[in-house]
Amino acid sequence: MSEVTIIINEQPITVPAGTTILTAARDVGIEIPTLCHDPEVSRYGGCRLCVVEVAGWGSLPAACVTEVRPGMVIETESARVLEARRTILELLLANHPEDCLTCEKTGACALQDYAYRYGVRRGAFLGERQNHPVEADNPFIVRDMNKCILCGKCVRVCSEVVGRSAIDFSHRGFRARIATALDEGLQQSGCVFCGSCLEVCPVGALTGKQRRGKGRPWEMTSVTTTCPYCGVGCQLKLQVKNQRVIGVMAGGSGLNGRHLCVKGRFGHGFIHHPDRLKKPLLRKAGVLQEVSWSEALAYTAQRLSQIKQHSGGAAIGVLASARISNEENYLLNKFARRVLATNNLDHCARL
Amino acid sequence: MRNLMEACCQRCTHTPASPCSEYLLCRTEGPLCHESKECRQQRKAFIDEVTIPSDSPGRQIIVCGGTGCTSSGAANLVDLLNQEITAHNLGNSVQVKKTSCHGFCENGPILHIKPEGIFYTKVKPKDIQDIVLSHLVNQQVVKRLLYQDTAGNSYPYFQDIPFYAGQTRLLLRNCGQINPESLADYLAVGGYRSLVKVLQQMTPDEVIEEVQRSGLRGRGGAGFPTGRKWASARKAAGDVKYIICNADEGDPGAFMDRSLLEGDPHSVLEGMLIAGFAVGSTKGYIYCRAEYPLAIKRLKIAIHQAQQVGLLGSNIMGSGFQFDIALKEGAGAFVCGEGTALQASIEGLRGMPRVKPPRSTEKGLWEKPTVLNNVETLANIPVLIQTGTEAYRKLGTVKSPGTKIFALSGAVTNPGLVEIPMGQPLREIIFGIGGGIRDGKSFKAVQLGGPSGGCLTEQHLELPVDFDSLTTAGATIGSGGMVVMGEDTCMVDVARFFLAFTQAESCGKCTPCREGTKRMLEILERICQGKADLKDLGDLERLCRVVKNTSLCGLGQACPNPVLSTLQYFREEYLAHIVEKRCPAGVCSSLVRYSIAADRCRGCGLCLKNCPVGAIEGEKKQPHTITAERCIKCGVCLDKCKFGAVLRG
């Protein structure tokens, strides 16, 4: 692939042709702010926060969608750029609720970070603000479109990665917002509640319902683990506060990246549930009693042997689980056919 | 043979069923496939019926069926004419024909009698009897129905009326002259000859070269060289390529493309066919806004007719060239006039622009190389192919060759559709063709290019109207909207109007356009209400700068232009609103003050009696006064006063 040499902030840099200014700048440690860019979805160029000044160009191109050209001389923080960036942030803040104090996203909000970085306060351009009811008529996701900055990441991730297209832009101009078809709410839409939109939302417009009010980003530790639900093995980051799992985020790497299914992302209520089974139970004299693993296994082995001897292996049925890996299922199959001598073998995923 | 399109006799072998390259010429100049004086005469008679040459024994009464004339009552005129003609037994020598718009809408309904060329204006149903009896039977022109200018001069002939005399109707040549729903009409006036020429005598590269040499620039607003666009689409790699006709004309007050589509739809199809042949495309789309139902109807008819006779489809006229056209109706979004948004809309997605590059000629509709041309651009193609580059370039300027159609509206005496060679001075259009400012008022400004354009003033009246001159002055030729404003126009209000339009039509994708135009509009509203201060003016200017420099597409980048140009040329008017809380033009209702001139007031009490809020006080026969705090500015006092004592300002 051919290479292109450009100058960013007086620093020469050579990158492969087709690289965007944003990526080229990041390669040399220059962080250009952006709210709508996401490497996993298509190029968008909507928030315009990443505009830069290119010598000889009249307007300020968006770094996230402009590919480098030979000899480009780029300034990422010139006076014109700063005026544009600050104005854009002021415009976003002018149409944004003033509730960072209670917002779930505080501390992990890109808009907050950039307002801090560029010293922008809310105040200029005060006027009408969008005023939508907060949507929470589903068990998992709270949509507060008053906080939405219309970066469109949720729309793109839903259509390009998840393949559902449950949401899209609706209306025009100042009334533009993200909505489901006919505003019917997420449950009536094609949404599968995978929560990938939560993962990419840069502000507090999309939040997890279960974790609301339970902790701030800086109060939580992140514990990486593997999802217990199926054999795929998605990586999770448990959000833990005071030894309790408050929420789940995708591992961010490995096979699932930032994506999970509804169970992996939202189905963690069992962890601290009082009814959760933690030890084997054995019914003794008609009553379930906690026993040790060795006692439980020994009893099971004994009963299986008895049944096989008395009625033959065919009297035993085995049900395998989708939660375990292929290898484990293979072993269970061997165990059933060879050891228990039964072909009565089934799997929960078939039910 | 009942019409031009049919075979004249059984010897005729040139039929749509056996496509051959001579087919069209056989119909219009033939027959070519066999020798027959009779057949030839028959064909000529059909053509004469459409064109009415000066020696024609028959007469044709053209009734304008454009939107303007129809709404001012032209719909019944055809029936009434036919009744009267039958009553006077003139049925054999006079035919009545309904055409599309003549562009002189202010003077409709229009009747145009051929071959003599008498032009009647403002014709009412009660005038029909007179026209038939006096004009057709007694050969006397009905003078009272002729066009009269403000000086009182009458003009019997179409071509002498200053509105038409100043024009060069090259693209509009057929509008108002032929029946737009008849393919035979278009063929009779030379239609599809350019396609025949291209298919028979030229290679695709030669066509592109010809278009490049002609210097034709896109009429949609940007003025991009059409030939260069075609060349890059031809060069682009791709198995499938598309031609799109952008008929999503959305600028407020602009109706050039609508008139072309309604009046001469086949010329646009012919342009698309030639583009398809040149670029190597087999599929075209016309994206027409649904608010143009008549244009859509006529396009559907034209496409169907062309398909029926093998002008669209496979193996067009035996040349092996294949091309078809589909019509896609837009759903009313202004932004869909932007090329990439338009393509998204055809694909079934929300009409939102994407960042360029890649250009549409490389990756356009469904990521295939696509040529997107405006209606008027495409209508230029048959003309320039037929006349040749040299003749074509004689019109217009070196850098902006050809003609341009403008929708002249606002405070001019003769609003309407005008076509002029590029490079004519603004003054000629506004004062020559347009007849100056209505009601003897003075000229203040002209807004060119709709919401993306700017306002120009008295000092610019000598500027030649072409792509480059206007841009330097802060306006743009745009798609051809030309709104003329008189002395009683408030320029802040004009800027507010355009911003309200762009704000409502912004697609919402990029922040500066979505949020910035909203705040610009709010500031302009505050200025109009007298609630703004000088800091607002600074904020407005900063927003203009940022929205212009950082918006994603042309809509956002150009939408500050009406504000910037009015700020540049009418800054004192902004300051009057902000500092003095006064609207010099007396338009902004919040800033209007009513007062009573004591020297003129007779104390009759009529205003006092009619004031709905009791804001007027005064003793009988003594000068009255208006209490400003109570006044709701309804203007009743002004209307009631018989002595001109109530002042508004």
TrEMBL record, chain A:
4Fe-4S Mo/W bis-MGD-type domain ranges (all copies): 220-275
A GO term for molecular function: 2 iron, 2 sulfur cluster binding
CDD domains documented for this protein: fer2
Residue ranges constituting the 4Fe-4S ferredoxin-type domain according to the UniProt record: 139-172, 182-211
Signal sequence annotation: none
Domain 2Fe-2S ferredoxin-type span(s) in chain numbering: 2-80
Keyword hit for Transferase: no
Pfam families xrefs: Fer2_4 (PF13510), Fer4_Nqo3 (PF22117), Molybdop_Fe4S4 (PF04879), Molybdopterin (PF00384), NADH-G_4Fe-4S_3 (PF10588)
Name of the featured protein: 4Fe-4S dicluster domain-containing protein
Origin organism lineage: Bacteria, Bacillati, Bacillota, Clostridia, Eubacteriales
TrEMBL record, chain B:
PROSITE patterns in the cross-refs: 4FE4S_FER_1, 4FE4S_FER_2, COMPLEX1_51K_2
Residues covered by the 4Fe-4S ferredoxin-type domain: 592-621, 622-649
Classification via InterPro entries: 4Fe4S_Fe-S-bd, 4Fe4S_Fe_S_CS, NADH-UbQ_OxRdtase_51kDa_CS, Nuo51_FMN-bd, Nuo51_FMN-bd_sf, Nuop51_4Fe4S-bd, Nuop51_4Fe4S-bd_sf, Thioredoxin-like_sf
Pfam family, one: Complex1_51K
Record family assignment: Belongs to the complex I 51 kDa subunit family.
Residues forming coiled coils: none
Molecular function GO labels: 4 iron, 4 sulfur cluster binding; FMN binding; metal ion binding; NADH dehydrogenase (ubiquinone) activity
Keyword Iron-sulfur: yes
Protein name per its UniProtKB record: NADH-quinone oxidoreductase subunit F
Domain of life: Bacteria
Species the sequence originates in: Desulforamulus aeronauticus DSM 10349
4Fe-4S recorded as keyword: yes
Keywords noted in UniProt: 4Fe-4S, Iron, Iron-sulfur, Metal-binding
